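dumping this here so i dont lose it
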């Protein structure tokens, strides 16, 4: 049985990845310190003998007994309000945490896939963003702690690949959504769903003309699975190219929830908020044979079913 370690397993993406790899017949070690995660996301896996949970801060030395075939390194605050609140932890998990995970991969001779982000492109001057674009990041702005941590993550991963011959994969994930996002994590979808369900104002930042391209979590998980099993070592964008404005996104959620009390409440645009974002997924299509399957209307409906059960 193949053994895989998933850092950040109690988070949104880590918990879906844990489910997927259990389903594929792997033994999964989930590691987390619950900084932004929620143990309820993985509690259903605790009775399984194929699943183990290690409560550990990966910025400290990581030890795992026995063999390890694969590592998925997903631990990191991911929502802007989380990393603004925890700038040092964000930098440490991107730098020290990634170093520890790469060291573990080297020791165990395991293949490692690290979670990077579309934020490495910053406020992009090229649109859509292909992997060849180097980005436009303000290192000393409020988002710099996350963006630069992830740029370091990519740099140290490539260095371990070329210098220590570690078998590495780098995924650049674009905005992903689905069940198990934290209601209060401040990202746009949990914010809008909870506000629409409660009949409050949907806090659209700026004039809502900034764009994002939202990918449903099952599609992303499929892309991660394929990239892990591929033999491609350079960064690959995985996301849904279907771009929309944040105003349009708010309207779609208002229409779906149908609460007559909900309205649009304009708020100031946060500093350095990227104006546009859309993945060029040519590489993912050609190398992984991957493209997203779940249209936004369908993904939003599935996600609404979840938020109905957790929003009070
Ligand atoms: P999340 O906050 O739900 O999950 C992150 C998990 O990492 C949490 O469970 C948290 O407790 C854990 N963690 C943080 N610091 C840790 C530490 N020092 N030691 C151990 N565990 C720690 O976020 P998510 O949306 O699931 O994101 C997961 C990964 O994917 C992150 O690396 C993020 O940068 C990346 N990513 C996510 C998106 C997205 O749209 N969700 C987009 C781009 C990149
Ligand atoms: N946003 C918004 N209202 C909110 C939260 C976010 O208008 O309550 C906007 C935010 O300014 C950004 C977009 O929605 O332009 C996506 O924000 P999110 O924090 O989800 O992720 P980002 O892509 O910025 O990391």
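and the seq i came up w/
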């Amino acid at each position: 049985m193949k053994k895989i370690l998933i850092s950040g397993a109690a988070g949104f993406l880590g918990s879906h990845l844990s489910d997927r790899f259990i389903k594929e017949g792997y033994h999964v070690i989930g590691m987390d310190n619950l900084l932004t995660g929620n143990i309820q996301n993985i509690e259903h896996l605790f009775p399984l003998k194929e699943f183990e949970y290690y409560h550990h801060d990966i910025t400290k030395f990581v030890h795992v007994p026995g063999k390890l075939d694969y590592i998925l390194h997903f631990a990191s605050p991911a929502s802007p309000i989380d990393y603004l609140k925890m700038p040092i932890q964000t930098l440490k998990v991107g730098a020290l945490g990634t170093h520890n995970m790469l060291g573990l991969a080297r020791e165990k001779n395991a293949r490692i896939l690290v979670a990077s982000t579309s934020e490495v492109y910053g406020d992009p001057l090229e649109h859509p963003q292909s992997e060849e674009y180097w980005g436009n990041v303000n290192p000393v702005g409020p988002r710099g702690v996350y963006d630069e941590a992830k740029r370091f993550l990519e740099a140290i991963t490539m260095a371990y690949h070329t210098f220590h011959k570690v078998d590495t994969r780098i995924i650049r994930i674009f905005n992903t959504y689905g069940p198990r996002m934290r209601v209060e994590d401040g990202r746009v979808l949990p914010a809008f769903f909870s506000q629409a369900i409660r009949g409050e104002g949907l806090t659209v930042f700026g004039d809502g003309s900034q764009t994002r391209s939202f990918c449903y979590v099952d599609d992303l998980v499929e892309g991660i699975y394929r990239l892990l099993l591929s033999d491609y070592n350079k960064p690959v964008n995985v996301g849904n190219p279907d771009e929309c404005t944040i105003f349009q996104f708010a309207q779609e959620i208002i229409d779906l929830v149908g609460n007559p009390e909900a309205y649009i409440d304009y708020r100031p645009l946060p500093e350095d908020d990227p104006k546009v974002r859309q993945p060029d997924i040519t590489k993912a299509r050609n190398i992984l044979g991957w493209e997203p399957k779940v249209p936004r209307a369908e993904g939003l409906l599935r996600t609404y079913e979840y938020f109905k059960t957790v929003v009070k």
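The chain is about 40% helix and 20% strand.
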